[in-house]
């Protein structure tokens, strides 16, 4: 019997369009002989629209937007997720950014007791929040760049003091980021006080919490991690953007960015990246997948930048390419992640909730 696979995509997020591209790629590659694919589109306004089971892959993003034709009511979505007719055996939440990758949807699926691909509430929320993530990394001794963080109200009340703190603790150039967005949305590089202020104002449009990180002269190298309690690492891959840094345009609109897989690093650097990736994976209690991002300096110092709990997932994205070069094809990767989701869910069912 085919398993029902609910693919959830879109979302009330600045990364809505990225999610649509990811969903189209996964639906085009999923094994329709093993899975009955049920599309679930979340609009920009947060409305859930469930479509009919797909008989074949979709070819355009516009088809994904038309799922359900707006006729799927909230009660039918609840019925779909809560044991009604056609309830999925497993959910693949292909959501990037806020209201999807940050633990919110994962919490809903946990309440509904549904298996789902990827990280749970803790790993998703902590991995999404760059400030919390870095603080957890500090606790286990992971090497990373210095940083300063603050909230919007601090900036409004004492911007001059914050600027002085940043300039005392860090040196230009620095990178300014919203704490809770991925895909390099709202990220800027500042080389002086004027560009720092402009960058902070931009980042505050996307989040109330801001992190300012020390710039470092280094190569950007990434590694895929897959598994549950016993995760494995892919080969490393290096990003060589033409732009000043690997921003949103370079990731999704610029074909000139070069990806070197496997990255040309020493055995010592690769071993260090693997060790740090596994440690980061375990301190966040990750499941299914993450992509670990590193800086590697000229003298082979390895600094962890962040982990992405739902990395870009089209066939040309770094995470699938890393695994392809490790010997796992894109369709196999999808199937492996679904199986890991079912495995993790089965383990959760061993938890006792009644007192003897």
SSE inventory with pairings:
Blueprint: E1 3-10, H1 16-29, E2 35-42, E3 48-50, H2 61-65, H3 74-81, E4 90-94, H4 104-111, H5 121-128, H6 130-139, E5 147-151, H7 152-169, E6 174-178, E7 188-190, H8 193-203, E8 209-214, E9 219-227, E10 232-240, H9 248-252, E11 258-260, H10 267-283, E12 288-296, E13 302-308, H11 318-324, H12 330-348
Parallel strand pairs: 1-2, 1-4
Antiparallel strand pairs: 2-3, 5-8, 6-7, 6-8, 9-10, 9-12, 10-11, 12-13
How many domains? The number is 3
Structural class, by secondary structure, is alpha+beta
**Total strand segments:** 13
CATH class of the largest domain: Alpha Beta
What does the largest sheet look like?
5 strands, antiparallel
Spatial extent as radius of gyration: 21 Å
SSE arrangement, N to C: EHEEHHEHHHEHEEHEEEHEHEEHH
Poorly predicted regions are none
Q: Span between N and C termini?
A: 37 Å
| Alpha plus pi helix count | 12
């Amino acid at each position: 019997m085919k398993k029902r696979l609910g693919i959830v995509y879109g979302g009330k997020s600045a990364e809505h369009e990225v999610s649509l591209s990811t969903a189209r790629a996964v639906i085009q590659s999923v094994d329709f002989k093993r899975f009955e694919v049920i599309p679930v589109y979340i609009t920009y306004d947060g409305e859930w629209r469930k479509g009919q089971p797909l008989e074949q892959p979709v070819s355009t993003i516009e088809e994904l937007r038309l799922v359900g034709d707006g006729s799927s009511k909230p009660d039918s979505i609840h019925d779909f997720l809560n044991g009604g007719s056609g309830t999925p055996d497993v959910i693949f939440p292909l959501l990037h950014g806020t209201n999807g990758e940050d633990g919110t949807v994962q919490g809903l699926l946990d309440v509904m007791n549904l298996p789902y691909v990827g990280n749970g509430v803790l790993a998703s929320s902590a991995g999404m929040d760059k400030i919390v993530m870095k603080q957890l990394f500090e606790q286990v001794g992971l090497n990373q760049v210095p940083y300063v963080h603050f909230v919007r109200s601090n900036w409004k009340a004492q911007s001059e003091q914050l600027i002085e703190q940043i300039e005392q603790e860090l040196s230009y150039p620095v990178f300014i980021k919203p704490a809770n967005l991925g895909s390099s949305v709202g990220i800027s590089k500042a080389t002086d006080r004027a560009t720092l202020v402009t960058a902070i104002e931009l980042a505050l449009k996307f989040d109330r919490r801001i992190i300012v990180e020390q710039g470092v002269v280094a190569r950007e190298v990434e590694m895929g991690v897959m598994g549950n309690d016993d995760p494995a690492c892919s080969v490393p891959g290096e990003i060589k953007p033409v732009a000043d840094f690997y921003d949103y345009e370079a990731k999704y609109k610029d074909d000139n960015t070069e990806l070197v897989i496997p990255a040309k690093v020493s055995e010592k650097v690769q071993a260090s990246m693997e060790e740090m990736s596994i440690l980061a994976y375990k301190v966040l209690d990750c499941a299914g997948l993450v992509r670990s991002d590193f800086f590697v300096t000229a003298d082979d110092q390895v600094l962890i930048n962040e982990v992405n709990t739902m990395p870009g997932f089209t066939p040309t994205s770094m995470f699938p390419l890393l695994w392809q070069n490790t010997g796992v094809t894109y369709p196999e990767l999808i199937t492996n992640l679904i199986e890991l989701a079912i495995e993790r869910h089965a383990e959760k069912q061993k938890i006792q909730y009644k007192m003897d």
